[in-house]
């Protein structure tokens, strides 16, 4: 059966009436109706009742294969038993102390043992906080004011980071020297003056050398979360060489890739070691967390500055989070084979989808690595953020609707993940659903 877009929207309304009721209430209580803008959907968001393993259920009783996994948090799927056991045990003895506790030692030791560049770790509450903390640390350690980031990289939503996250034709500027394009209203010009946006080409290395006297560090996502675009290993190696020679620190933002692609993240896969790395998502075992990992020397220098380096947070190192986080890291350290299994399943999913699209002449493709993937409305695989320009946005929006008709849940921007709990049958079912969704879109062309 061929559905036009309005018919699909009506079908989704019919399937999710309770979500529609809660959406109407939320719009009068929360700006825009959403706690996070990343959760928007047409005709309205899906309100979730529960999750288990690879699946999630909405409040209307519909079951989906979950390809959101809380935006990458659940590497083991929903509700892994070791994590639940740790959470229940800690709930019995205290939820928040505001004082040191023994889980701090276990958690940070396991994190440091897993991260190649780490000798010390600092814990905060979100991935956004982790990059804000890391950038402050780099400035303190070098006594230099600026941080460079790459066009298309997302390092959280704080004022210093939200520049040129997407490549927009109207604002992006020339390829060799991107413009500073703010990602939100309300970001002051003062923040703009502390950030340098770099292109993903050799001109980035020249800009780093030119600005070395004012650059504290360079931040990069080894895999761009916006697009699931993998940065070439040779580029990362050259970046490491140039930053070291220029006396500029290198920051790997592994909030998404950390503990998802390998126990040591992209550092383990590429062999490139940054000076500082940031983490979130997976390391909290499902509870809010962020972390910064770096060398003892880096922190030592920062602490000797005139004003002294400091950071604080009432919930930083919360015993609930570090209990679930320690349980998660312990499981991952003892079961490293899951990464090989997820890498194999991810290759199977991407190869199957891309091969099928090419055979049928459909203008869609899938990028990603390991258990991370994203579908694009382009025939050719994109490499850089600017390659995403010109996609058929209407087709992508309709594709999102078809996913839900086919009982698969993805975020609206198609940024997607699967977990170790997704069986081979789940992967096959996902592939079938993605193909059916593309055919549904193409039937209306």
Overall description:
This protein has 445 residues and is an alpha/beta fold. The protein has 15 helices and 16 strands. The protein has helices at residues 5-15, 17-27, 69-72, 81-91, 102-114, 127-142, 189-192, 203-210, 233-245, 265-270, 296-303, 319-334, 337-360, 393-405, 424-442; strands at residues 48-52, 55-58, 63-66, 120-124, 146-150, 195-198, 215-220, 223-224, 229-230, 249-253, 276-280, 290-294, 365-369, 372-376, 408-409, 416-417. A hairpin with a 2-residue loop joins strand 13 and strand 14. The longest helix is centred in the C-terminal third of the chain and has 24 residues, at 337-360. The mean pLDDT is 93.
Largest sheet: 7 strands, mixed
Q: Name the beta content range.
A: 5-15%
Shape: globular
Do you know the CATH topology of the largest domain?
A: Aspartate Aminotransferase, domain 2
User: Order of strands side by side in the largest beta sheet?
Assistant: 4-12-11-10-7-5-6
State the helix count.
Answer: 15
Strand tally, please? 16
* Helix-strand category: alpha/beta
From the N-terminal CA to the C-terminal CA, the straight-line distance is: 14 Å
Poorly predicted tracts of residues: none
Second-tier CATH architecture of the largest domain: 3-Layer(aba) Sandwich
Report the CATH superfamily of the largest domain: Type I PLP-dependent aspartate aminotransferase-like (Major domain)
Number of domains: 2
CATH class placement of the largest domain: Alpha Beta
Helix coverage percent:
25-40%
Oligomer: single chain
As a whole number of angstroms, the C-alpha radius of gyration is 22 Å
- What's the average pLDDT? 93
């Amino acid at each position: 059966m061929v559905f036009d877009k309005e018919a699909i929207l009506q079908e989704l309304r019919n399937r999710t009436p309770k979500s529609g009721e809660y959406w109407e209430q939320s719009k009068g209580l929360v700006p825009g109706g959403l706690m996070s803008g990343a959760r928007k959907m047409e005709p309205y968001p899906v309100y979730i009742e529960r999750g288990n393993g690879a699946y999630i259920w909405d409040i209307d009783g519909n079951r989906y294969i979950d390809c959101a996994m809380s935006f990458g948090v659940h590497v083991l799927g929903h509700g892994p038993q070791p994590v639940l056991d740790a959470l229940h045990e800690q709930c019995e003895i205290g939820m928040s102390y505001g004082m040191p506790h023994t889980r701090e030692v276990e958690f940070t030791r396991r994190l440091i043992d897993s991260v190649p560049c780490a000798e010390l770790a600092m814990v905060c509450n979100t991935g956004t906080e982790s990059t804000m903390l890391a950038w402050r640390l780099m400035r303190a350690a070098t006594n230099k004011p600026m941080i460079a980031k790459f066009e298309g990289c997302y390092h959280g939503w704080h004022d210093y980071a939200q520049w040129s996250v997407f490549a927009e034709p109207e604002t992006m500027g020339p390829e060799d020297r991107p413009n500073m394009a703010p990602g939100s209203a309300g970001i002051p010009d003062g923040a703009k003056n502390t950030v340098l946006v770099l292109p993903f080409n050799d001109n980035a290395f020249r800009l780093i050398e030119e600005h070395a006297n004012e650059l504290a560090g360079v931040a990069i996502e080894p895999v761009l979360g916006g697009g699931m675009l993998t940065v070439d290993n040779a580029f990362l190696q050259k970046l490491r060489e140039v930053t070291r020679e220029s006396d500029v620190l290198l920051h790997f933002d592994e909030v998404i890739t950390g503990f998802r692609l390998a126990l040591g993240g992209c550092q383990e896969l590429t062999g490139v070691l940054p000076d500082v790395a940031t983490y979130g998502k997976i390391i909290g075992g499902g509870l809010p967390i962020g972390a910064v990992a770096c060398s003892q020397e880096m922190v030592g220098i920062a602490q000797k500055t005139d004003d002294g380096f400091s950071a604080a947070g009432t919930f930083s190192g919360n015993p609930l989070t570090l209990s679930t986080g320690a349980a998660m890291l312990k499981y991952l350290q003892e079961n490293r084979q899951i990464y090989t299994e997820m890498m194999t399943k991810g290759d199977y999913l991407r190869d199957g989808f891309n091969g099928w699209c090419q055979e049928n002449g459909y203008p869609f493709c899938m990028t990603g690595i390991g258990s991370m993937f994203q579908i694009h409305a382009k025939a050719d695989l994109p490499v850089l953020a600017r390659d995403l320009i010109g996609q058929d946005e209407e087709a992508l929006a309709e594709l999102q609707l078809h996913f839900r008709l086919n009982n698969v849940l993805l975020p609206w921007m198609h940024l997607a993940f699967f977990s170790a709990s997704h069986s081979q049958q789940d992967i096959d079912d996902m592939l079938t659903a993605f193909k059916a969704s593309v055919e549904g879109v193409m039937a209306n062309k």
